[in-house]
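Folding Problem: From Residues to Backbone Shape
Fields: amino acid sequence; protein C-alpha cells
RECORD BEGINS BELOW THIS LINE
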Amino acid sequence: MTANESGARREKMIGAGYGLGAAALFGASAPLSKLLLGHAGPLIVSAFLYLGAAAGLFILQRVSSRVSIAKEAALRGRDFALLSAITILGGIAGPILMLYGLTRVSALAGSLALNLEAPFTIIIAVVLFREYLGSRAILAALLIIGGTILLGWAPGSLRADSLGIGSIAAACLCWGIDNNLTQRLSLRDPAAIATIKAAVAGLTTLTIAFAIGMPSPGIGIGLAALAIGSVCYGLSLYLDVLALRMLGAAREAAYFASAPFIGAILSLAIFRMLPGTAEWIAAASMAIGVALLIRENHNHAHVHDELVHDHLHYHDRHHLHAHLAGESPHEPHAHPHRHSALRHAHPHVSDLHHRHPHGG
C-alpha cells in the first residue's frame, strides 16, 4: 500500500468514526426525548435541546482553543446565507416536526421512521450535488437502510398514525437538505457552524413557544433537556460536520443511517421490550453494510480543476503551495490557498476536493 493510499484509508476510517459517533448520539436522542414529551410540549423540548447543544458546543470551543494550536477556517460573510438555510431547516423545522411526530407514535416507531433521512440525503447528494456512489457503496447503503426498515417488521412493537409518521418523514426531508447544504460549508470551523446553528435554533424556537403561550418546563425537565441536548445534539452536530467534510453527504448518510437502529435498541431497553429475530437480522445487515463502506476502495485517474479556497489542511498531495509572510508554518493550518490543475489517481471519496464526472 502506497503512502497516498494509506493516508486516504486513514482519513476514511476517521470520517467513518465521526459519522458513526454522530449517529449513535443522535439516535439516542429520540427515545430520551420521548421521555421528556410527557412533561413538556415539543416546542419547549426542542428549544431546550438546542440551547443545551449550544452550551455544550461553546464549552467544546473554549477547551479546544486551549489545547490545540490548529485554527479552523473562520466563517465569512457570504457563508451566512447558507448557514441561515441550514439553521431553519435542520435546527428549527426538522426537530419540531420530529418531536411533534413523537407525540403521536411510539418511541420505537419514531426511531425507525428516522431511517428516511438517509435515502433523502443520498438522493439529493447524488442527483443535485454530483456526488458519486459506486455499486459497492450503493449496496452498503441499501444494507444499512434496509436493516432499519426490517426492524419495523417486528410484530406488536409499533404504535403509529399517518400524521405522526408524516411529520417525522418531513423532518427527515429537512435534514436531508440540511446535510447537503452543511457539506458545502464543512470546510469552515465545524464547532462555529454547529454552535451558531444550535444557539439560533434554540432561541428562535423558545421565542415561538413563549409567544403562543406554552408554559415553561419544570426545573428537572429543563435540566434534563439541556443535558441531553448538550451531548446528543451538540456533540453529534460537531462530529457530523467533520464526517460530512471527510466523506461527502452520501457516504455520511449511509453511516448516519445507523442512528435509527441505535435509537430503536435504546427504546427496547428503556421501554422494556426484548429484541427478536428481526432485530438481530437487522443488526447483521447494518454491520455488513458498514464493513463494506469501510472497505470500499474508489480509485481512478481524475482531474482537479484550479481552485482557490480556505480550510484546515496539511501539506499533502493536494496542498503543495508556498506560504506568504505571516502565515503559520504549523500544520494543520488554515489560510486561503490555490490548488493548481492536477490529474492523478488515488483512493478518494466525494469530499469537496473530489467532485468530478465518472464514466458509465
About this structure: The chain has a mean pLDDT of 75.
